[in-house]
Automatic annotation (TrEMBL):
This is Glycosyl transferase family 2. GO terms for molecular function: transferase activity. Keywords: Transferase. It comes from Paenibacillus algicola. It comes from the Bacteria.
Length: 233
């Protein structure tokens, strides 16, 4: 049996994180759950511990990239075979965990995609434009078709755990982290995954941050492509 760790980076998610933990318990009772409390100012750490998760508390907010790298460092140190990344806001459905894990022996990273097949997910027009743009950009750069490069629902095998423990992009890292793995000759695939609407809390994504994200990540992906072609990966 695979030794599985579910990593949940969390910032001020006291309202939702207990339900995320219970959802995982219901569908994957054998998995260990690690909440990386990213400098929260509320009771995220306390409610996560009360719900039965392991908790690592960072002294200040480092962002999603720093939180995820901390989780992968923990997974590497403790010898996990698979590390699954899930959001703390309850948008990812733990019912999809078996589908992701069923494919993790066939590749190095499995990405839960909202668009590979028809799902119930509904997005705003602007969000859909951004997701489509990045998926096409990454598909062009990596020469592999991706439909949902911004998905944060992923299952990583041992090779990726080692790589992400050493390096993980810092700001809005989902897109960059895919390009990084292709540079390291990892095998990636997508599987269908549902995504629910956020029921509690507030997204940190604002129009200004979205614009910054589009520019920064696009430049990073293009620079990575150049380095890949020059053999500097």
């Amino acid at each position: 049996m695979l030794k599985v760790l579910v990593i949940i980076p969390a910032y001020n998610e006291e309202s939702s994180v207990p339900y995320v933990i219970q959802d995982i318990r219901n569908h994957m009772p054998s998995a260990d759950i690690l909440v990386v409390n990213d400098g929260s100012r509320d009771r995220t750490a306390q409610v996560a511990m009360e719900a039965g998760a392991k908790v690592l508390t960072l002294p200040f907010n480092v962002g999603i990239g720093g939180g995820m790298q901390t989780g992968y460092m923990y997974a590497k140190k403790h010898g996990y075979d698979v590390a699954v990344q899930m959001d703390a806001d309850g948008q990812h459905a733990a019912a999809d965990l078996p589908r992701l894990l069923s494919k993790v022996r066939d590749c190095d990273l499995v990405i839960g995609s909202r668009f590979l097949e028809k799902t119930s997910y509904k997005s705003s027009v602007m969000r859909k434009v951004g997701i489509t743009f990045f998926s096409r950009l990454v598909s062009l750069v990596t020469r592999q078709r991706f439909t949902d490069t911004t998905s944060g629902f992923r299952a990583a095998g041992a090779k990726v755990i080692d790589l992400y423990a050493e390096y993980y992009p810092m700001d809005y890292p989902e897109v960059e982290s895919i390009v990084y793995l292709t540079r390291k000759h990892c095998r990636l695939m997508e599987v269908k995954a549902e995504m629910r609407a956020r029921e509690t809390g507030k997204s940190s994504i604002t129009p200004l941050k979205s614009a910054y994200y589009m520019v920064k990540v696009t430049l990073s992906v293009l620079m990575s492509a150049v380095r890949y072609r020059e053999g500097k990966a």
